[in-house]
Amino acid sequence: MTTPPDLESLRLLVHVAELGSVGRAARAMGIAQPSATKRLAALERRTGVPLLVRGPQGSTLTADGKLVVAWAATLLAAVGEFTESVSALRSSRSATLRIASSLTIAEALLPRWLSELRVAEPEVHVGLTVTNSTEVARLVLSDDEWDLGFVEGPTLTEGLASKVVGEDRLIVVVAPGHPWSRRRRPVLPAELAATPLVVRETGSGTRETLDRLLRAHDPVTPQLALGSNAAVTGAAVAGIAPAVLSRHAVETTLAAGSLVEVPVADLRLERRLRAVWPKGRRLSGPAATLLTIIANR
């Protein structure tokens, strides 16, 4: 035998052993009896051994046929287990949503969005990696592991499709004792650029937005560049220097009076927040559901 027999022929032989006749086995599998007879004859030719003894009362297995049926039953059970395992794996993957998100979106917006997703699809498991917007774009483009990314920078990396999921605004904040907390006139762009600030690290959407806004004003080197909104907020509360952050990131601190917002003139500090994924990929499953939830808010 140069090639293994097809699984359906083996399944038919097992049915014959269980039901006692080719006709009953054919009906169990939903095929015509002549077709079943031809399949069994082909199976005997392929194995090279007689499998059945046919008589007026039905069909019985030869000694070799009984061995083949035992082996076939083991093989079919293994195939069934394999099929079920793959199906379970596919279901598990479809019920898992892998997200890479920028820090501000992850802290301020994703918890509400994911809470609504859990109500809509309670079986979904979410894996979340939080990093800056540049790294989010790199991850989503370079690895199929990620279903969706969220970024907040002013530019979109080539190769990414996107959907706007929200609006945000950068604000300048200082500690209550800072001189800017008492000024009556807004800070001008050139004045802001000439001030050493506490800012997010290079690669974050907040930092990229700020750098673009101040580029024409020859900005000075930041006083501190820190890797999280909490660290920047803490430095501003400590009075180290004015800070520039997403309003989402400092709402609680502003409400508590630990920071004061400073108005800025002639700068468009608004920005768009985006969901991103590789161009050409059609979003489906939990990723598509999440975007629908966000759009309907």
UniProtKB/TrEMBL annotation:
PROSITE patterns tied to this protein: HTH_LYSR
Domain HTH lysR-type: 5-62
One MF annotation (Gene Ontology) recorded for this entry: transcription cis-regulatory region binding
Protein name, per record: LysR family transcriptional regulator
Source domain of life: Bacteria
Pfam family, one: LysR_substrate
Family assignment from sequence similarity: Belongs to the LysR transcriptional regulatory family.
InterPro entries assigned to the protein according to its UniProt record, in alphabetical order: LysR_HTH_N, LysR_subst-bd, WH-like_DNA-bd_sf, WH_DNA-bd_sf
Keyword annotations from UniProtKB, A to Z: DNA-binding, Transcription, Transcription regulation
